[in-house]
Amino acid sequence: MGAEKNPSNATSEHGCGGGDGNASHNSQVMLNVYDLTPINNYTVWFGFGIFHSGIEVHGMEYGFGAHDFPVSGVFEVEPKSCPGFIFRCSIPLGHIKMPPSEFRTFIESVASEYHGDTYHLITKNCNHFTDDIVYKMTGKHIPGWVNRLAWLGNVCSCLLPESLQVTAVKQLPEYHASTEDGTESLSTTTHEPTESDDADQDKLLLSPSAGNSEVSFVKEVQR
After folding, report:
1. Catalytic, out of 58, 67, 82, 126
2. What distances in angstroms separate CA 221 from CA 5, 22, 70, 179, 207, one per listed residue?
3. Please, are residues 48 and 66 in contact by the beta-carbon 8 Å criterion?
């Protein structure tokens, strides 16, 4: 994705930075980038790699993952700890002045546009999600290198490793008890792949794998 670079980001190609927001209604927007494969340590020098990204706002990180159901694929985790991926760096992308409750309403509204069964590694992946969220909040884009492989994949699908052209992990979203602020979120349960799952390679799904860190799906606003 040909994202424009903003001098105020103070980041270079593959550069990372950090910072903290202080005011209760003011939050820094951070892009947390993860490696999907150790191969990135070599390909990153050529300007591309296979990355997952999440947006950190108000002390939580939000990402987009795959499952087989027409409901929200937007999930939240503790910052820089998305299970199944290797944390690479954080990139500051500006600030927003939005109370946590207002942001929650915003992310739940966006979740209705990102169902788990619509995830596609090339055309609608986690990096498309974070770029969309950042642009809606700040008017900026994520650095182009984060999702460059998806752009290249549109040109030549053979560039993608075969191992990434199958379902990685499928997770069944389930509602659990309301959180302290009265909102509901979704937890995940995984199921063992079946022969039909293996045959469903054209979906190009990729989800955060189950691990010690809790992954909760965000309940979407019903329209």
Report:
1. 126
2. 32, 29, 13, 16, 22
3. no
Q: How many CA atoms lie within 13 A of 120 on its CB side?
A: 11
Q: Is the pTM of this model over 0.90?
A: no
Q: At what angle do helices 126-138 and 100-111 cross, to 10 degrees?
A: 140
User: 89 an active-site residue?
Assistant: no
Helix (H) or strand (E) holding 148: helix 148-155
153 three-class SS: helix
Give the DSSP H/E element, type plus range, for residue 131. Answer: helix 126-138
Q: Is residue 52 among the annotated active site residues?
A: yes
CB-CB neighbours of 6 under 10 Å: 15
53 and 142 Cβ atoms separated by less than 8 Å:
yes
Q: How far apart are the first and last CA of the chain?
A: 30
pLDDT tens per residue across all 223 residues of the chain: 434 444 444 444 455 655 444 457 899 999 999 998 888 888 777 777 889 999 999 999 999 999 989 999 999 999 999 998 999 999 999 999 999 999 999 999 999 999 999 998 888 999 999 999 999 999 999 999 998 877 665 545 554 554 444 333 344 455 444 444 544 545 544 444 444 444 343 333 355 554 445 788 898 877 6
Q: Which residues contact 182 (CB under 8 A, 6 or more apart)?
A: none
For the beta carbon of residue 73, count every other beta carbon within 10 angstroms. Answer: 30
Catalytic residue among 52, 58, 128, 141: 52
